[in-house]
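Tokens for Nuclear speckle splicing regulatory protein 1. Go.
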Amino acid sequence: MSRKALGFDDESSGEEEAPAAPSWRATSDKSTTSKRLGPSFLNKDIDEIDESIYAYDEVYDEVSHAKKTETLRASKATRPQYIQGLLEAKNRRQEDKLRVSDLKVSKERANEGDEFKDKEVFVTNAYKEHRKKVEENVKQEEKEAGEVDMKTFHRAMMDSHDRNAHDQMEHTTNQEEQKEENDTQNVEETHISLQAGLNIPSKAKIPSQAPASPPPFKKQKPSRQSETQEVLKQIEESEKEKKKKQDEKRLATKKSRLLPKLSETDIEQYRQQYLQRKAAAS
């Protein structure tokens, strides 16, 4: 067989078969695209096609960002709840210890006096920053304490103002109600009943009896202080009376002990002796 029969003719094969390959690829690409996008998409104009369908990178970034956000939220949810408070308490304790140590050092320096006055003092930058931080913390604590005191003061003032306003409102309401009741009573008392068919009021009847006596004077209720003084006065009087009775009883007991031992003769004798001593003294 010749080279041409076996298909090794370079000139003829190059001229005949070279255009066939692009035709096959174009047909296959067209069929694949038509299967993937559909016939309705191919019939659309190029201007009508939405360019966002090719935004693969943007869509991927959004999806990955959403996944990262969800992962971060889950990690925050599983984070310990009380560790932050414990760490803050630990830092406060350390600051308090450092503050106490600074106070001790300052007292020692004050006790030393001028003993090491001629010595050179070395202060590091770290110690300066530490002192600055301690002073800032002290100022912040004083400020917070002052704010708490002011809040407490304002709260107490507002509470007292609310109570006073409430009491004043109740007092005003009671006065208005009392005034309305008095007005109603006055209207009822001054109302004149008319008979049917006549608009002539009846004459006032002259009272035949003497006017009623004024109501008795109502004794005011004594105050608590006067009641206390009255009770103390009664207690003192009862104690005096009791003491007087005891003295009388004691005197009667002494007399009862002495009188039976002395007769009338002895009493007269003692009387005469007393008169003699009195005359001798004069």
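The first helix runs from residue 10 to 17.
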